[in-house]
Amino acid sequence: MSERVVLAYSGGLDTSVAIPYIAEQAGAEVIAVALDLGQGGEDLEAVRKRALGCGAVESIVVDAKEEFAAEYCVPALRANALYMDRYPLVSALSRPLIVKHLAAAARQFGGTAVSHGCTGKGNDQVRFEAGLAALSPDLKVIAPARDYAWTRDKAIAFAEDKGLPIDVTKKSPYSIDQNLWGRAVETGFLEDIWNGPIEDLYDYTADPAEPREADEVVITFAAGVPVALDGRPLTPYEVIAELNRRAGAQGVGRLDMVEDRLVGIKSREVYEAPAAIALIAAHMELENVTVERDLARFKRSVDQRWGELVYDGLWYSPLKNALDAFIDDAQRYVSGDVRLTLHGGRAVVTGRRSGASLYSYDLATYDTGDSFDQSLAKGFVELWSLPGKIAAARNREQG
After folding, report:
1. Is residue 38 part of a domain?
2. What share of the chain is helix, strand, coil (3-state, %, to 5)?
3. pLDDT, average across residues 124-153
4. Which one of 67, 74, 247, 328 is at 20 to 30 Å from 53 when CA atoms are compared?
């Protein structure tokens, strides 16, 4: 039996061309695997059939929307994951899930290798291959775009020569990756970092400058997991999908940033992540209400490291697994409601309530009924200041 290669298939030019190219170069049969991650756009049944038309011996589409939301987006939300304090890991979150299904397909169909369409410049090559090394280290990796200097011109010529059932003339000026958690846009005129984004490149969000009525939403969390909107119980997938529509209609979640890629270069990226940005804002505020101060301070450093690990393709690493355990414990009391006003490109918290709240009105108020014993404060301040006072005396004595 000939070798079998499992291909991460998107339906675009590069991965469509990869099917007959791999078959020729490696003498292998190709199994195409596409995932529905809530990205919308083209019908995935058409994508499945296109892979077969390009020569794949098997073509499968996995409905992974609910899995992606519950097992990847929710952990990112509980970690308030924002790479460089801004990017909500849109592409980085999807790669370990794709890897998981590639490895499963290799076992199912007897695959001995996997293939992806990543170049040598990007982060995704690392995310795919580091994930595979953790889950199925026996599988070989074939990366035509990286390993064979596969350019777009070569891909178009190859597709035309083979008569592949794909439109090779349509060319977007951008490179786009999208899923339920958001949308990433790069290349084209955006590579000049002085050029501002134009409205044509956005799809998940409306122009935040357009006049419209504000939208108010109440998000309910249970142990850090979003479980309802405006009192309606929903799955995490349903919460994210609805907030993408509602926050996106208000222009929430647009990001334009120069980020530090794992491979050592800086890259200009434009993101749209309406649900992610709204949910993280709400979740962070609920943590402010329910998480004790020292735990909250330490968790902020854990959150940052968690986001860096996922960005760097280390979803399956021992450290990330250990941080998951910490975050899970820290989320025990992060339950309650947060009210957000969505308007003008912003998601603004206007109310919060929780049965596990650490906020005490009686301690916080300055009005009648204040239960805070201010007589204790004088001694507290003196003891708190004592180390600095002693050091200052020593410094004066020593000149």
Report:
1. yes
2. 45, 20, 35
3. 90
4. 67
Q: What is the pLDDT of residue 153?
A: 80
Residues 36-80: tens digit of each pLDDT: 999 988 788 999 999 999 999 999 999 999 999 999 999 999 999
Is 175 among the residues known to form the active site? Answer: yes
Is the pLDDT confidence value at 1 over 60? no
Same-domain check for residues 102 and 146: yes
Residue 77 among known ligand-binding residues: no
Q: What is the mean predicted confidence (pLDDT) over 144-170? A: 80
The catalytic residue among 4, 48, 50, 95 is 95
Q: Which of 130, 138, 140 is nearest to 320 (CA)?
A: 130
Q: Does the structure show a pLDDT above 60 at 230? A: yes
Q: Are residues 147 and 202 in the same domain?
A: no
* Domain identity same for 340 and 204: yes
Q: Which of 36, 175, 177, 357 is catalytic?
A: 175
Q: Are 335 and 290 in contact (CB under 8 A)?
A: yes
**Residue 5 is inside which H or E element, if any?**
strand 4-8
Among 171, 191, 225, give the residue marking a domain's end: 171
| Contact (Cβ atoms closer than 8 angstroms) between residue 42 and residue 167 | no
Residue 11 known to bind ligand: yes
Residue owning tokens 């999908």: 241
Question: Which position among 14, 303, 312, 337 bears the catalytic label?
Answer: 14
Tell whether 165 and 197 lie within a shared domain: no
112 labelled as ligand-binding? no
The yes-or-no answer on residue 375 being catalytic is no
Q: Which of 48, 78, 115, 124 is catalytic?
A: 124
Q: Is 14 a catalytic residue?
A: yes
For residue 244, what pLDDT is reported?
98
259 marked as part of a ligand binding site: yes
What token pair was written down for 298?
């330490």
Indicate the pLDDT class of residue 122, thresholds 50, 70 and 90: confident
The question of whether 246 is a catalytic residue gets the answer: no
Residue 119 known to bind ligand: yes
Query: Would you say 360 is a known binding-site residue?
Result: no
Which residues pair with residue 346 across a beta bridge?
343
